[in-house]
Specification:
Number of strands: 14
Mean pLDDT: 94
Distance between the termini: 45 Å
CATH architecture of the largest domain: 3-Layer(aba) Sandwich
CATH topology of the largest domain: Rossmann fold
Helix content: 40-55%
Strand content: 15-25%
CATH class of the largest domain: Alpha Beta
Strand order of the largest sheet: 1-2-10-7-8-9
Number of helices: 18
């Protein structure tokens, strides 16, 4: 089936009594910051805290009674699983959901809560790929219907209803719309509807810097599989986009912005502290991209899709850490301290500035050596204080190595 505006409108009719019609909210602070009219499409307020319910329900609702009796199957460690589980319970369709064994208990519990007795969870392997492989074997063996998270026409049409609601709720023409991209289902559905109904709107896809699978595919003119990805923005980090979604995004998107993971963390904290909005990393992706197109959007009307709010509270310490590192306020060093009394005191009194704070210090004395390495974490109050700190260590003759945020040792710390 080719996805058209008509199919998206039909999906809207299917979903109108199932999904939450999430608000299109004007954000005064972001508008002032960027000199634009910034609106947020709050899919984090959806029934399952993400837009994924739209596509999953539209797909499962379309199944004939015969297919429903065979049941459905999917692979997911996150929002898609919750969307399928919720739909299974609503439609009374037996569903089997394969998830990696290392999926957090919070996510597993949420899927069970939404699915109830209509969902069976199978924990297999250590990665999404392991879960996907098992789900496809199950599909073949049990003749179950596979519900793909993005590369399916009915799923794409369901996600496209986000655009339908945005245009119906907006009281002014939209100049830019920013869309987070993982596999590309949301960007595909929204772009089809927008290009038909609001062709003036510039559609900007947003991917995490460490997982640019759609950008790479468009640049190479074919679907490519990335060798490795940074999975921090887990809702938008995939190695391979869909064949269908690639073709649609290649045709419809006006550009793709890559956002560093640290910048996403800065935005997550800002959204929580300044706006009372809790997002997952992928949910903050589109807003994070505003920094990278700020010159283009001045005086324009901009819509950012806040795609999800399923963030485990235990991740916030890492989010804060990554945010500080990105802003240049947190640094880690391997410092060679002379193994003599007063060496540490000299560092604290003469190298550190008055507002610098030691947040980590790990050191083991080696009696048979003149010097010993210590792992030291320092938090600064201003980015420019780093230069002062390193100058002071140079003047004191302290040997040190600043750890690369992209290096293996840094990842071990965080």
């Amino acid at each position: 089936m080719q996805v058209t505006t008509k199919e998206i409108s039909k999906a809207g009719d299917v979903l109108k009594n199932v999904v939450v019609r999430t608000p299109l909210q004007y954000n005064e602070a972001l508008s002032k910051k960027y000199g634009a009219n910034v609106y947020l499409k709050r899919e984090d307020l959806q029934a399952v805290r993400s837009y994924k319910l739209r596509g999953a329900y539209n797909k499962m609702h379309s199944l004939t009674l015969t297919k429903r009796k065979r049941g459905v199957v999917c692979a997911s460690a996150g929002n898609h699983a919750q969307g399928v589980a919720y739909s299974a319970n609503k439609l009374k369709v037996k569903s089997t959901i394969f998830m990696p064994r290392n999926t957090t208990k919070q996510k597993i519990d949420r899927v069970r809560e939404f699915g109830g007795s209509w969902v069976n969870i199978e924990l297999v392997g250590d990665t999404y790929d392991d879960a996907y492989a098992e789900s496809k074997l199950f599909e073949k063996k049990k003749k179950a219907v596979f519900v793909h998270p993005f590369n399916d026409s009915l799923v794409i049409a369901g996600q496209g209803t986000v655009a339908k609601e945005v245009l119906e709720d907006s009281d002014k023409p939209i100049d830019f719309m920013l869309l987070p991209i993982g596999g590309g289902g949301l960007a595909s559905g929204v772009s089809i509807y927008m290009k038909d109904i609001s062709p003036r709107t510039k559609l900007i896809g947003v991917e995490p810097f460490g997982a640019p699978s759609m950008k790479e595919s468009i640049e190479q003119g074919k679907v490519v599989t990335l060798d490795k990805i940074n999975k921090f923005v887990d809702g938008a980090s995939v190695k391979t986009v869909g064949e269908n979604t690639f073709k649609i995004c290649q045709k419809n998107l006006d550009g793709i912005v890559l956002v560093p993971e640290g910048r996403v963390c800065v935005e997550m904290i800002s959204l929580y502290q300044d706006h009372g909005i809790v997002t997952e990393p992928a949910g903050a992706l589109s807003i994070s991209a505003l920094d990278f197109i700020k010159d283009k959007i001045k005086g324009k009307t901009v819509v950012c899709v806040v795609s999800g709010g399923n963030n485990d509270i235990s991740r916030y310490q890492e989010v804060i850490e990554r945010s500080l590192v990105y802003k240049g306020l947190k640094h880690y060093f391997i410092i060679e301290f002379s193994q003599r009394p007063g060496a540490l005191k000299m560092f604290l009194e003469k190298a550190l500035g008055p507002s610098d704070d030691v947040t980590l210090f790990e050191y083991t004395k080696k009696n048979n050596r003149e010097t010993g390495p210590a792992l030291v974490g320092v938090e600064l109050s201003k980015t420019e204080d780093l230069k002062k700190l390193t100058n002071n260590m140079d003047k004191l003759g302290i040997k040190y190595e600043k750890l690369d945020p992209e290096g293996v040792m840094f990842k071990f710390i965080i």
